[in-house]
């Protein structure tokens, strides 16, 4: 059993991290692409990581209501960053995936974010950074749980 004080310390530090990261992501996004909100970029990054998916799968994975995801996807489609793909054997359903421009924008934002992280961690020994990445991956895996992963329904792995 983990002591309550340890959990409280962790909760506080995670909350601080989330607030800082959310603020930094918003700034970086606006500086890099003023037409992209942090939420819209989150959908782009999701598609870049996981390939084509149905909007309902994205909503379920991200814990966002389907109408909200639909509005964000509409914006991304209008900007030419995603496109729709038909689902074989289901004329009403579609998948969404990145366009070449969408992939380019995600790569550029990831590059900017990577340089920011590198600057923040410049004084850390490489071993500490590696350990932090491994522990954060372990935490994220625990937080995601089986119900929070996108299914492979209709996805072909391509963006």
From TrEMBL:
Coiled-coil zones: none
HTH marR-type domain segment(s): 7-141
Superkingdom assignment: Bacteria
Stored PANTHER family: MARR-FAMILY TRANSCRIPTIONAL REGULATOR, TRANSCRIPTIONAL REGULATOR, MARR FAMILY
Protein name per its UniProtKB record: MarR family transcriptional regulator
